[in-house]
Please model this.
Amino acid sequence: MTGLVLTLHQYNPYLIFLSGAIVMIWSFVQYFRKSGVTRPLAIGMYIAVGLAALQGLLGLIMVASGLKPGGGSNLYYLHYVYGAIVIFAIPVATTYASSGKKPRTDALIYGIAALILVAAAARAFMTGPATM
Model:
């Protein structure tokens, strides 16, 4: 079981990068086109958040199994910080969005949140594979 969770936790970041990058680019395109957040873009954001939540759940299962992130010089706890940023980037951005009152601004906020998601996911990925 731990092997499956470890493998999924190892490969899911690629999906997070991909979905986050798509949402980021799409949001910025919508902003520069003077448009707002469309339903397909919102679905893309939900997918990115879902993948990030799955990654966090897999990480919690690994911690409960006695594993911890490898890499770094005893700064493995930063992996948890970056992981939390990945999970909460878009939901926190939702609190700053205007709920459709300013659609162009909403697109910019979500684009920046997706940029933060991708950057934090990349940084969390750099901490290395799990160790005992």
Notes: The chain has a mean pLDDT of 87. Residues 99 and 106 are 8 Å apart (CA to CA). DSSP finds four helices and two strands in the chain. The first helix runs from residue 2 to 32.
